[in-house]
Design brief:
Elements: H1 2-23, E1 53-54, E2 58-59, E3 78-84, E4 89-97, H2 101-116, H3 118-125, E5 130-139, E6 145-154, E7 159-170, E8 173-182, H4 190-202
């Protein structure tokens, strides 16, 4: 009888242990890391006489930085991608993921300021340079994007260049899209570039 009673008590204790373990909540699985923002593809660039070719997505800031925004985006959290055509046309997209939304707002504001003052700074560095710069408006997408054009020329040698730039933000991600070629603003695909900018910001998240 004592043996039976001991066996029953042992079984009961084991059952209570199993029940207690079942009631302990399982540790929450770690949240998956958010997917990194997506880049433009070659087919999403403004139309060109020859097809666009997309380079690889690279970590950090470009080795050959933009003359307008060099030194502003931090290397940490930044990636970039270059595009080219068979003609004298090139483009670049840079994406920076900031630690907080406030930092992303500050970065976007600093990048916009750099574009707004770029031509004046270039003229200070090179007195022979002439040009015009315009704010081309806001693109309504996510937290917004802003488009600029900078038309430069060297009258002594007869060369002209046109660049289109945009800064856009979605949450903590800030993107800069640059497009440039030989020529003047009249020949630049401004509406196509605004469409590209819209796509670039929409693809961030």
């Amino acid at each position: 009888m004592r043996t039976l009673r001991t066996a029953l008590l042992t079984a009961a204790a084991a059952g209570l242990a199993v029940t207690a373990l079942a009631q302990v909540p399982a540790a929450a699985a770690p949240a998956p890391a958010p997917a990194p923002p997506k880049f433009l593809s070659a087919g999403q660039l403004p139309a060109s006489l020859t097809p666009w070719t997309a380079g690889p997505v690279r970590q950090g800031v470009p080795a050959e930085a933009s003359v307008c925004t060099a030194g502003i985006a931090p290397a940490a959290g930044t990636r970039h991608r270059d595009f080219r055509t068979e003609l004298d046309t090139g483009a670049r997209q840079t994406i920076t993921v900031a630690a907080t939304t406030d930092r992303a707002k500050a970065l976007a504001a600093e990048l916009r300021s750099a574009l707004e003052t770029c031509l004046d700074r270039l003229k200070e560095q090179d007195p022979g340079l002439e040009g015009e710069a315009f704010y081309q408006g806001r693109v309504a997408i996510e937290e917004g994007a802003h488009v600029y054009s900078i038309d430069t020329s060297y009258p002594e040698v007869g060369s002209t260049d046109i660049g289109l730039y945009s800064v856009g933000r979605d949450g903590t991600a800030v993107t800069v899209v640059e497009w440039g070629q030989l020529g003047e603003l009249d020949g630049a695909p401004l509406e196509g570039f605004k469409k590209t900018t819209r796509t670039a910001v929409a693809k961030l998240y």
